[in-house]
Input
Amino acid sequence: MNRESEKVRESLPDMAYADIAVLLPAQRDDCPVAGISPDWARLGSTIERGIRLRIARERRAVGLFALTAAGILAAVWAPLLARNPQALLALQAMGFFGVALFYLPIHVLLARRGDDI
Output
């Protein structure tokens, strides 16, 4: 991840603690839950687990896309090579085009996510 994304990821738990502290009711005597404070350690682990789950989801999405793209390329190229072995030369000539078609969506996904390319 780029530096800005890393800074945001590191500051998320601090932001969540500040937001939660603001949302908690002030200590009042008329409130039946006066004196109750949240379990900050458990809350911190929950937030960190959520961040890890989101990162894992993003990686899984990119992995599934790459696997699908590789399957499509194999489904198109394997019958061509089986039918005509000389087609390999034509496929090599078109290789840069195929790589560009494969790389462009990954490039777009990484740019959307904010990673350096």
